[in-house]
Amino acid sequence: MLRTAFCAVARRGPHKAPPGAPHLRRRLGPISAFASSVDSRITRFCVEKTDLKDYALPNASWCPDMLSLYHEYLEKTKTENWVKLPSFKSNRDHIQGLKLPIGFESPLSSAQGEYRIHTRGIQMEGQGYEYVIFLQPSKKKSVCLFQPGPFLEGAPGCAHGGSLAAMMDETFSKTAYLLGEGLFTLSFNIRFKNLAPLGSLIMLNVDIEKIEDQKMYLSCIAQSRDQQTVYAKSSGVFLQLQLEEE
Amino acid sequence: MLRTAFCAVARRGPHKAPPGAPHLRRRLGPISAFASSVDSRITRFCVEKTDLKDYALPNASWCPDMLSLYHEYLEKTKTENWVKLPSFKSNRDHIQGLKLPIGFESPLSSAQGEYRIHTRGIQMEGQGYEYVIFLQPSKKKSVCLFQPGPFLEGAPGCAHGGSLAAMMDETFSKTAYLLGEGLFTLSFNIRFKNLAPLGSLIMLNVDIEKIEDQKMYLSCIAQSRDQQTVYAKSSGVFLQLQLEEE
């Protein structure tokens, strides 16, 4: 039933790979194929010249921990094969040509309004989701530096559990897509350990645990910078979908 | 470890119960005690006279399904013991006097800024979370009518999985608090079945499955109004905390 429901096929976005680049594969193949298709996706995703605003850049609302760790990871992009991901206001700017299941229709489809990815829905700096994701393809992992603002509240002073879950799901999503064509969340499981304070840095460490039968299994630990406080642990399963040339 | 972390004790909010009302209990007792403490919490929660804006009221962005089902459940509040919950911009307006764990501090604590519950963080009508929760205490269940707006997008035209998870968690949260002093999410598990279209009605049917060892176990099915399309199923565990008089 699930397979039928998620029968989507994704096509290449607007940034085509150069002629001669290998076709993207349905399943992860040998390491070389894995590496080349991953490189190709990351290159298209991290478009160098664009008029789109990148929201994953420091602003005045970032706390000192968030800012210093951002610069620390930015240094790692030069020496340790980390990649800093841009973050536009909508997934439509990142991934185009996604064919949704037959019969799927949103009542908003015909409207010409503005769309925003959930985690960039609150627009004023510092009030909602402030975050930046770094990816380390060679180790199949990623890190999200997340600072929840006062409009993500649950209990007074604390990040709403749903906002932490959404941030984890979004980090899983980008990691799964770029490192293995994982496009849709099949399941997500989170266990909360400690309340996460608004306005502070929460570090999300994500690992791809395994890939089996077109499913990617990811895990995440959300913790303080010094790793002394674990806020939550989660796991997610993503469905891999075939990517085709347009 | 978890118990130590969540050592909070909640006290009564600003709307005190009348003299002679029974003390709220740590655990659910016999049916009569359960009923009276639940009634007392609901009465305080559904404050009749307030200057606070109730966001769980129809506005021009609501789709016809959302509007008609709202009126259907509003009718049930007169005949079938359903209760329509108000929804203010912050949990601080609903539940005051919550003592957080010793040592917990948000960097924003000293700031005098505005706070919003995550699911009311996007302020413009129709763009974010449009929802209203109805509770049926006698059957330990609730219904949330949810219309995700274009600022909650995941895949184009679809609600972000994280937004659906957050809406479920929030509905669990209010249900658990009002029907059994369940205050903090311990764990949450969601399985996605079909993509949920933005701008359409998503019906969340929530049931309290059981209460054991200060833990409340809840389940949710998110589906279309005609129940022909299941979008996701979830389960959650909430920790019950002692409520004390101020």
CATH architecture annotation name of chain A: Roll
Multimerization status:
homodimer
Structural class of chain A: alpha+beta
Model regions low in confidence, pLDDT < 50 over at least 5 residues of chain A: 1-32
What is the string of helix and strand elements of chain A?
A: HEHHEEEEHEEEEE
Extended strand count of chain A? 10
Sheet of most strands of chain A: 7 strands, antiparallel
Please estimate the helix content of chain A: 10-25%
Distance between the termini of chain A: 28 Å
Average of the residue pLDDT scores of chain A: 84
What radius of gyration of chain A results from the CA coordinates?
Answer: 18 Å
What do we call the CATH homologous superfamily of chain A?
Hotdog Thioesterase
Spatial strand arrangement across the major sheet of chain A: 2-4-5-7-8-9-6
| Count of discrete structural domains of chain A | 1
- As for the CATH topology of chain A, it is Thiol Ester Dehydrase, Chain A
Helix tally of chain A?
Answer: 4
Largest interface: A-B, 67 and 67 residues
Using the coordinates above, name the CATH class of chain A. Alpha Beta
Q: Choose one word for the global shape of chain A.
A: globular
